[in-house]
Amino acid sequence: AVLFCTWLLLGSSWGPGPPGIGAAPLLTADYVLDDADGLGREFDGIGAISGGGATSRLLVNYQEPYRSQILDYLFKPNFGASLHILKVEIGGDGQSTDGTEPSHMHYENDENYFRGYEWWLMKEAKKRNPQIKLIGLPWTFPAWIGKGENWPYDYPHITVYYIISWILGAKQYHDLDIDYIGIWNERAFNSKYIKLLRYTLDKHGLQQVRIIASDRLWEPISFVLLIDSELHEVVDVIGAHYPGTKTVPNALLTQKKLWASEDYSTFNDEVGAGCWARILNQNYVNGNMTSTIAWNLVASYYEELPFGRCGLMTAQEPWSGHYKVEAPIWITAHTTQFTQPGWSYLQVDGHLEGGGSFVALTDGLGNLTIIIETMTHNHSQCIRPPLPHFRVLPQRATFYLRGSFYLVKTLQVWHSRLDFESANSSLFEQLHPVKVWRGSFSLDLGVDEVYTLTTLKTGRKCSCPVPPPPQPFPSNYKDDFNIRNPPFSEAPNFADQTGVFEYFVNGSDPGDHVFTLRQVVVQRPITWVSDADQTISIIGNFQWVNLTVTCDIYIEKPLDGGVFIAGRVDNGGIYVRRTKGVFFWVYADGTYRVTGDIAGEEVLMKGLSGVRHNTWHTLTLNIQGNSASGLLNSYPLWENVTISKPSNGWAAIGTRSFEFAQFDNFHVE
């Protein structure tokens, strides 16, 4: 509540030093924080997403102590980001932005609750913060769910069974209690399915699992909730993506919890931090949203994939141990270290007279936390939606504490200032406490700043050891996949872009190929984006130009089966269908091809190879400058193929279609 606004010359007040003589007058305004007439909405927490997809892929391959340090920065209370919520993808074997994540049920008669890394990540989060809330959401589904159709709702009882199995598996095999479950990321919802999901959750004793819908836009879910009382009863949270801090009237009329269930998605430099600071406050101030969840948790995927470094921090070099605690981590801490889910917002307008915003929260037990942000337009633009122009000015804010807060005498102060000139930002620094005199205090606010003022004394900024310096991917890399009990189902550093490549024990081969890597998705999944028609897993350094790739391959599909090795692979993620490179294919019918793309439309060379299925062969691809050659079982098969583009890219392995195939003794140099 703004009592008055006037222009005054700067006098003495708490805050940064006064401007010099002749400085422009400072805009001043008063704000009242009072709980006497009740509180605002209940705060549900700040979180981040692992998945949607494969965004944590490289994190699991970090060696200790670096992996634990990264996890501490994300989840450990009063340490770094101190997240309240972890949202993970329920892997569905399909491409979901930066890769595929494996399903717990590749096939109808298949269950395995140890695939992928989301189980591990949820346990690591819980280990550090037992109170963290867990959310599961599917982006894609295995093909058997749709019985041949690219749609998960034709047989809702099957989809419900699949999702319930994931929730029960989390508890049975990992002792993880899932708190919230979503419907289908950024795709259509189905009322019949949601009602059946609630009924089946209750039937299995999972009443504590809440339902979020629909992880897309505010509409049409809000309107449907208003006209369908049965659906209204079973949906607990309306989750909207990238709402631009705004909500819609129908969403408010439902009286449901409103969340920005996916937001941010912005390059994690200072502008990304400004975006995050602004929406963390203004999602509530403008839109009544009581939770904001960032995509993504940690940028642990090859940076040249789509949306590189759009995580709260960066950890994309497990081979070197290097990681970077980016500014958004400390912006998160301004809220998360001094609030908890279950606190309540105060009923205040929240807009600052000179631009910017503030929120105030209480635990109802006398504690008070105020978070203020003064992000300017050009320094806080998120990736989406477009941001209308606004102005932010230096200003003095005077806060009057009323009600149960009148007796507060001192507030702890934490401060960040984002510097866009010298990149010398001050992040999450503790300043001298502010004295509250007769229920009021004043604060001089510059632009692009964040302040937290709180009665809590628990805040902490970790000072961990400096991580190792960055290093490029090893220029000579081998993997024989000879690991009897792998800690994860996927081989280190391979990033699946269509299909799923898993460690495999080849019981029929007592020789050199007992432990292999196998592509296991044999039907096109219910997709979220345009997966390729071929499977592919990438690895290495995107800047590689001259390279030799060698791999033992085993085609399992007779007649029209086939596999490839590749170099200079230039694309992945949501753009995987348009991937170019140098692809060396061999097929079960005894032929080979060299193509300039994964789709096989640009044929550079073809001929006979004599390769057959159910036999191991060794392929070698050598790319030097504008020329490529290929060997089969160490003998030249083709040579002097001219390569014009791409000029650089990753190495890769893959299959002609969704088919079983095995790979062994991979080597790239």
The CATH architecture term of the domain at 44-319 is Alpha-Beta Barrel
* SS strand fraction: 25-35%
Helix vs. strand class: alpha+beta
The CATH topology of the domain at 44-319, please? TIM Barrel
Compute the number of strand runs.
Answer: 36
The parts where pLDDT drops under 50 for at least 5 residues are 1-13, 16-22
| Largest sheet report | 8 strands, parallel, barrel
**Helix segment count?**
10
Average pLDDT over all residues: 95
Give the oligomer, counting copies of the same chain as homo and different chains as hetero. single chain
The N- to C-terminal Cα distance equals: 65 Å
Give the CA-based shape: globular
Mind telling me the C-alpha Rg?
Answer: 27 Å
Instruction: Trace the largest sheet across and list its strands.
Output: 3-4-5-6-7-8-9-10
At the fourth level of CATH, the homologous superfamily of the domain at 44-319 is Glycosidases
What helical percentage do the residues reach? 10-25%
Overall CATH class of the domain at 44-319: Alpha Beta
Catalytic activity: a D-galactosylceramide + H2O = an N-acyl-sphingoid base + D-galactose; beta-D-galactosyl-(1<->1)-sphing-4-enine + H2O = sphing-4-enine + D-galactose
Main location: other
GO molecular function: galactosylceramidase activity
Subcellular location: Lysosome
